[in-house]
Design a protein that fits this description.
Length: 366
Amino acid sequence: MARVVLQRISKSYPGVKALDDIDLVIETGEFFTLLGPSGCGKTTLLRTIAGFNRHDSGHVLIGGRNVDDVPAYRRDIGMVYQDYAIFPHLSVSDNVAFGLKTRSRPRPEIAERVARALDLVQLGGHAKRLPHELSGGQQQRVALARAMVINPQILLMDEPLSNLDAKLRIELRDDIRALQRSLGITTIYVTHDQEEALVISDRICVMQGGRVHQVASPQNLYARPATVFVASFVGTMNVLADCQVGPGGALSLGRRPCVLSSLAGRARVTLAIRPEEVILPDAVEQADAISLDGVIDRVTFAGREAFYRIGCGDGLAILAHVHRPSERRLAAAGDTIRVALPISRLHAFDPADGSRIDLGRSDPER
């Protein structure tokens, strides 16, 4: 187990700034996720930590040791890849034993550690099978056992579940998290799946364009996004771009005047709100809320929940979440409806740089 420190890491390719002055600290025993869309730099950063990529500037420290000039095979890491990368001609046990054999461990020790690793990933009865005799989920468990059996300082995982079906992804991500907690191993995990990141992580680093937008716990990331990009990328968010602000912070939005004094002095603001925070009050006027009249464009029923897409004019569409739709009458497409956006649940961002504007909302409990 080790602490990982990244100091001003930068990496460029012709015409592309892949990593732009990255500073991060991953604590010992932490499950830390790099989250972002394709091309954001998360895999490049992971491979830099692993030693597969050479950074242009900055420093990588693992367990307090500078490893800038240490090759990958000497960094004492375990790596789990998206495509499993297990040897097709070797049995399950031989695949798992491979790293121990290259380290010239005694044969009895190898047998004991391989058996223990296979039991941990629930493959104790599959030691003699070949990879083609396993399911995709079982092959990924073999890759996980092979990475863990060498007792690495850190475990690196690059989109390890992306080749699996939805049900298996959920099952295996829960197993990975439980296993990581039991071993206490420092784990850095790459994914583009927001839900996966929220469920599995201690902390999440959201990246875009080779830069870090925010590092936070899943709860704080969802409740207090630092930029409009984070707000839009993590979960579903209604973004009301380029809202006009009048004297004293008066918003020209909704059925009646609404003043947010923290916006005073600004000409424009980007507002955002989660669908589950939108209130559907029918014809009742809500206090301390922006009220909008609109027409339902679409109703999506999904069993335990439903979603309204409501057109409110001037190209503005609001997505509203309905919990337990079976307990209330659902309106239909084409119906008129009034929606309320509670002031206390609004997020505000600077239209120029996308940074968060503090509206005085407190942090959620960690």
